[in-house]
């Protein structure tokens, strides 16, 4: 073994360390140390830790992690940009807590959220994302919108020099993974559902899901003379009118339009509120009277009035092989099965298309981007049936792309495709569920890029570890940084879920700040998005509507773009984790 550092001089803060390379130079081991000056050594050891990760060779010397800045350094040091490296900059946003605005429409803990946002701003993030809950703002009655609490929040965000991604959240909070609070859709809408429960998505057993309205009522005037789409449009119009100053100032840069449960363009096929647990395949959600009538009309139009909706696709927690529809009989591959799946998935795309068109009309001329969120249904992805994707409305098979048609639809609205599960790796999943988050991310992002649209993304579950951050960094720039200008591939932005006390804890926040720096390609925070290639021009009118046949031409599978095995902007690996524990141990002794 070769000695790396035999001892440290007093000028090196009095810490005696010996480091040895082992396993072909892939790790460093501390074999002897004293605690003298341990507090001062933290920056030195942290830098060394980040400069190596197990088995990692950096392709670009600029990718070696630099020392994490303190908050005071972040706020007082002058900005320094390498103009060519700045082209690799990916903005990073942080999702606010679900209940930052309470269910009774008040700003929760004004002082607390302001202090947290100041800390995030000092760390260099670009902005925040927040749910703008329909069930809060329009709770008092039809067209009775109260935006005061959100305006107070936005003023605080503005004071922290952060941008805003606003989600038009037309769904319930509660009943999904990660939902810690309950915010229903407006009570007066739920009241209509008491008389007409078919306004909600329904499974084959007649169980209603009150998370959001079924797309079957998109154009049904059941809500005091308005259709569901008209309600969504009126809500967005009121948002634009009441937030015009924030829009005109350029603080609100992104409007993500809620299109289903959890704000995602999908069916509520795996509701925890009805007993679903991972990795169940979920159930089809098209048995309300409105969608049943739509399917019956479609079947008659193709000369098969005898075709019915599936009754043999299993239950929420079934496996594919245990069902007649997905299992050995492979009904999903029959003529009847293909017709149903085409209808089911096409209804989802049409639903998204219509609401995005309304959003485009509402925000026409504003300097914002529209966005829509697609769910990361990664379990059973490696099963031939892709059963969970199919029940969710994504007709994706090994020989059929179920995501690129959605990207093509979004392209006509100049919209961003926002995808989830960026932090997940195949090796972290249970083998029995045949998960494929890495391949799924590659397929969906590649499909977006091939349709010439911007793609953004977020983590599905809160992560504070380096492995999760490194996976996000890899997906943000699949082929790494380019020291001579823009990289081959680059995501439009990343949103981290979510702000919490745990994120802001000592070592968690230290790693997060490094993650922000790496997302920015080792450049300082840049408030001018034009410098890294993002121009917020006035939103133009959507292009002419595409026939569903044209959208479905994009189901032809195309090979994803190649991905590197690891990011070249790592926040560190196993060795950095070792040093974190070492420093924590020493500082605890000294306290």
How would you describe what is shown here?
The chain is of the alpha/beta class and 591 residues long. It is 33% helix and 12% strand. The protein has 18 helices and 13 strands. It has helices at residues 38-50, 71-76, 83-86, 110-122, 134-137, 148-159, 187-195, 228-242, 244-248, 289-301, 335-362, 387-392, 404-411, 437-450, 466-476, 506-519, 548-552, 574-590, and strands spanning 3-5, 17-22, 27-33, 92-95, 127-133, 163-169, 200-202, 208-213, 252-257, 369-374, 415-419, 455-458, 493-496. It has an eight-stranded parallel β-barrel with strand order 4-5-6-9-10-11-12-13, surrounded by four helices. Helix 1 (38-50) runs antiparallel to helix 18. The relative contact order is 0.14.
Low-confidence stretches: 1-77
Rounded mean pLDDT is 88
**Category by helix and strand content:** alpha/beta
Task: Report on the biggest sheet.
Answer: 8 strands, parallel, barrel
Approximately how much helix is present in the residues? 25-40%
Cα(first) to Cα(last) distance is: 35 Å
> What is the tally of beta strands?
13
* Helix segment tally: 18
Output the strand order for the largest sheet.
Answer: 4-5-6-9-10-11-12-13
In one word, what is the shape? globular
Gyration radius, rounded: 25 Å
Give short descriptive properties of this protein.
single chain, alpha/beta, 3-stranded antiparallel sheet, 13 strands, 18 helices, disordered N terminus, 591 residues, 8-stranded parallel barrel
């Amino acid at each position: 073994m070769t000695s790396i550092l035999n001892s440290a001089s007093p000028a090196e803060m009095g810490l005696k360390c010996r480091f040895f390379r082992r396993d072909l130079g892939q790790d460093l081991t501390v074999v002897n140390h004293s605690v003298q000056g341990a507090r001062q050594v933290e920056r030195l050891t942290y830098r060394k830790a980040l400069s190596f990760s197990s088995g990692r060779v950096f392709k670009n010397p600029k990718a070696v992690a630099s020392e994490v800045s303190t908050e005071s350094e972040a706020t007082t040091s002058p900005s320094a940009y390498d103009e060519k490296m700045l082209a690799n900059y990916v903005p990073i946003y942080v999702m606010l807590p679900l209940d930052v605005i309470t269910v009774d429409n008040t700003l929760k803990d004004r002082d607390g959220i302001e202090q947290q946002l100041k800390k995030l701003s000092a760390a260099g993030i670009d902005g925040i994302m927040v749910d703008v809950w329909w069930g809060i703002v329009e709770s008092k009655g039809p067209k009775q919108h109260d935006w005061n609490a959100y305006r107070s929040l936005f003023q605080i965000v503005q004071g922290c020099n952060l941008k805003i991604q606003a989600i038009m959240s037309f769904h319930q909070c509660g009943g999904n993974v990660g939902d810690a609070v309950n915010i229903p859709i407006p009570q007066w809408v739920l009241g209509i559902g008491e008389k007409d429960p078919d306004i909600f998505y329904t499974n084959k057993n007649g169980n209603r899901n009150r998370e959001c309205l079924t797309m079957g009522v998109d154009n049904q005037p059941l809500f005091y003379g308005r259709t569901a789409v008209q309600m969504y449009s009126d809500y967005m119009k009121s948002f634009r009118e009441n937030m015009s100053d924030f829009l005109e100032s350029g603080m609100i840069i992104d409007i993500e339009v809620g299109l289903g449960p959890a704000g995602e363009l999908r069916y509520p096929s795996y509701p925890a509120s009805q007993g679903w647990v991972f990795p169940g395949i979920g159930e089809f959600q098209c048995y309300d009277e409105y969608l049943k009538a739509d399917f019956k009309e479609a079947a008659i139009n193709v000369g098969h009035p005898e075709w019915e909706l599936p009754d043999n696709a299993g239950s929420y927690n079934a496996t594919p092989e245990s069902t007649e529809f997905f299992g050995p009989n492979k009904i999903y591959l029959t003529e009847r099965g293909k017709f149903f799946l085409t209808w089911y998935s096409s209804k989802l795309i049409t639903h998204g298309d219509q609401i995005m068109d309304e959003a485009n009309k509402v925000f026409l001329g504003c300097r914002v981007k529209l966005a829509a969120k697609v769910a990361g249904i990664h379990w059973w992805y490696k099963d031939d049936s892709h059963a969970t994707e199919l029940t969710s409305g994504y007709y994706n098979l090994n020989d059929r792309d179920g995501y690129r048609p959605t990207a093509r639809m979004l392209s006509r609205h100049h919209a961003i495709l926002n995808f989830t599960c960026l932090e997940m790796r195949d090796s972290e999943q249970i083998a029995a569920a045949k998960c494929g988050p890495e391949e799924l991310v590659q397929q969906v992002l590649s499909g977006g890029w091939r349709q010439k649209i911007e793609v953004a993304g977020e983590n599905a579950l809160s992560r504070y570890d380096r492995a999760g951050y490194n996976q996000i960094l890899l997906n943000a720039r699949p082929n790494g940084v380019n020291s001579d200008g823009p990289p081959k591939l680059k995501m439009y932005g990343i949103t981290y879920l979510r702000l919490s006390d745990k994120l802001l804890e000592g070592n968690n926040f230290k790693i997060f700040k490094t993650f922000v720096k790496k997302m920015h390609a080792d450049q300082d925070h840049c408030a001018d998005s034009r410098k890294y290639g993002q121009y917020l021009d006035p939103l133009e009118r959507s292009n002419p509507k595409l026939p569903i046949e044209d959208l479905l031409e994009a189901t032809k599978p195309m090979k994803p773009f190649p991905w590197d095995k690891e990011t070249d902007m790592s926040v560190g690996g196993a060795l950095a984790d070792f040093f974190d524990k070492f420093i924590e141990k020493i500082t605890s002794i000294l306290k």
